Amino acid sequence: MPTTDSTIIKAPEALPVIEITRDFEAPLARVFQAFTDPDLIPEWLGPRELTTVVDRFDARSGGSYRYVQRDPDGNEYAFHGCFHTVEAPTTVIQTWEFEGYPGEVSLEYMHLESLGDTRTRGHFTSHYRTLEARNGLIASGMERGLRDSHLRLDELLARA
User: Fold this and answer.
1) What is the Cα gyration radius of the chain?
2) Which secondary structure element, helix H or strand E, spans residue 156, and what is its range?
3) Do 56 and 44 touch, CB atoms closer than 8 A?
4) Are the CB atoms for 128 and 104 separated by under 8 Å?
5) What is the distance between the alpha carbons of residues 156 and 108, in angstroms, rounded to a whole number?
6) What does the pLDDT look like over 113-125, one tens digit per residue?
7) 3-state secondary structure of 103
């Protein structure tokens, strides 16, 4: 299992986009499963101090999802969206919306690339309506949450 975080996050100055690249020490199909199996999502999605409960998660083209994250004080943070394209084992295109800021919907692209039998590179791009929306997400602690999620995902993939 990797002991360091290889997540690369780029936010181009003039574009309302976040680009993420991350290598995982697991086969392509296993990484895709971790991103699309509702039973696995709570095991890795979100910072460690939050508990994730999946309300619905129908990872298929035309499906939808909703999950709620709870902090130790009982505060809840809900997220939902629609799956536009799901093509196993490489591609997911979906919307993502934090219910605390309704109407600020991003369009997210995930493409997984096999780097051999035991390694996968994830390319993730999120498009926002405005630079302000993107910058607000960054300011909210997105980077820490993402890095923690990826490290938790590494742990899950190492157990498989």
Assistant:
1) 15
2) helix 142-159
3) no
4) yes
5) 23
6) 999 999 999 999 9
7) coil
pLDDT digits (tens, 9 = 90+) for 100-114: 999 999 999 999 999
Place of tokens 């999802």: 65
CA distance 106 to 145: 17
Identify residue 53 by its one-letter amino acid code.
Answer: V
- 71 beta partners: none
Burial group, residue 104, by CB count within 10 angstroms (0-12, 13-18, 19+): middle
Distance in angstroms (rounded) separating the CA atoms of residues 132 and 114: 34
Provide the angle, in degrees to the nearest 10, between the axes of the packed helices 142-159 and 131-139. 70
Q: Structure tokens of 40?
A: 């696995």
Biggest alpha carbon distance in the chain? 43
Domains, the chain, ordered by start: 8-159 (3.30.530.20)
Amino acid, single-letter form, for residue 93: I
